[in-house]
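TICKET: design request
STATUS: open
ATTACHED STRUCTURE:
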């Protein structure tokens, strides 16, 4: 086994403490092909879980990545609440890792979400019955459904129902238990109502999407609702997610990659991920103002 001098130094420096196995993972990172963004970010989280603090320069050397790349990774992890930036580095976040409040999530990438919603809504055809779940990007889909359309939307998304007011299409809100953080309804009553209908298409917003772990959301209540939506859809299943959701794994799986037909996302979505998804028969639609 040939190990570079840089990797060997890393290994010997930490071999005598409990984190030496982590160093081995870094060695493998250096020896093999360059890491994709999701892998780099996972390595950064693992490092901080052990050491609590790190300098950007150290990460750049350990992960064999440019300073600019590491800064982008740090900014992304901070936006997810995982870490906190410091001058020239980062520390593990001291915040409790809870699902972000709805308003906070709505303020992340608002323009990207608007375009994603507009593009996704253009896929809805006259006469369609569609399921749409809760979430800030899903809300944008409902907002952009064209006026005077012969369309029925069935949703657990309270935000959309409140913000739209009097829609120009039929909007059916599932009953159920109020979920404060997602501004939605879920639970047995919602499931009972949902089990009586079928949809032509389903649009789902997610908190994370990855090849290995599929599409994931933070709560089991939302996962239960969305899983039933998918099971009762006889047409296309469309995921709506901005680029920051790639490589993220939340708490509960709602769909495997093989279950979805389309992903509507923004132009910042990872190019390698686009190729991976396309090879698995997922059509990638990049949101645009010019539909």
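STATUS: resolved
RESOLUTION: sequence designed for all positions
ATTACHED SEQUENCE:
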């Amino acid at each position: 086994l040939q190990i570079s001098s840089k990797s060997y130094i890393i290994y010997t420096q930490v071999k005598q403490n409990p984190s030496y196995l982590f160093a081995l993972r870094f060695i493998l990172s250096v020896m093999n092909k360059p890491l994709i963004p999701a892998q780099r970010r996972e390595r950064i989280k693992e490092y901080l879980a052990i050491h609590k603090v790190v300098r950007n320069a150290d990460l750049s050397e350990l992960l064999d990545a440019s300073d600019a790349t590491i800064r982008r990774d740090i900014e992304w992890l901070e936006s997810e609440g995982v870490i906190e930036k410091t001058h020239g580095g980062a520390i593990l976040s001291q915040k409790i890792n809870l699902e972000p409040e709805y308003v906070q999530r709505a303020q992340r990438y608002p323009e990207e979400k608007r375009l994603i919603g507009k593009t996704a809504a253009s896929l809805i055809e006259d006469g369609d019955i569609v399921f749409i779940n809760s979430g800030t990007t899903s809300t944008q889909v409902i907002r952009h459904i064209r006026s005077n359309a012969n369309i029925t939307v069935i949703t657990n998304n309270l935000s959309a129902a409140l913000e739209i007011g009097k829609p120009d299409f039929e909007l059916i809100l599932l009953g159920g238990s109020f979920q404060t953080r997602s501004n939605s309804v879920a639970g047995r009553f919602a499931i009972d109502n949902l089990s009586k209908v079928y949809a032509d298409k389903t649009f789902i917003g997610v908190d994370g999407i990855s090849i290995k772990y599929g599409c994931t959301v933070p709560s089991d209540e939302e996962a239960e609702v969305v899983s039933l939506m998918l099971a009762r859809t006889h047409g296309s299943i469309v995921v709506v997610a901005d680029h920051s959701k790639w490589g993220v794994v939340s708490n509960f799986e709602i769909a495997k990659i093989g279950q979805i037909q389309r992903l509507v996302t923004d132009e910042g979505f990872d190019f390698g991920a686009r190729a991976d998804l396309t090879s698995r028969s997922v059509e990638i639609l990049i949101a645009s103002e010019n539909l």
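CLOSING REMARK: Residues 242 and 265 are 5 Å apart (CA to CA). The chain has a mean pLDDT of 84.
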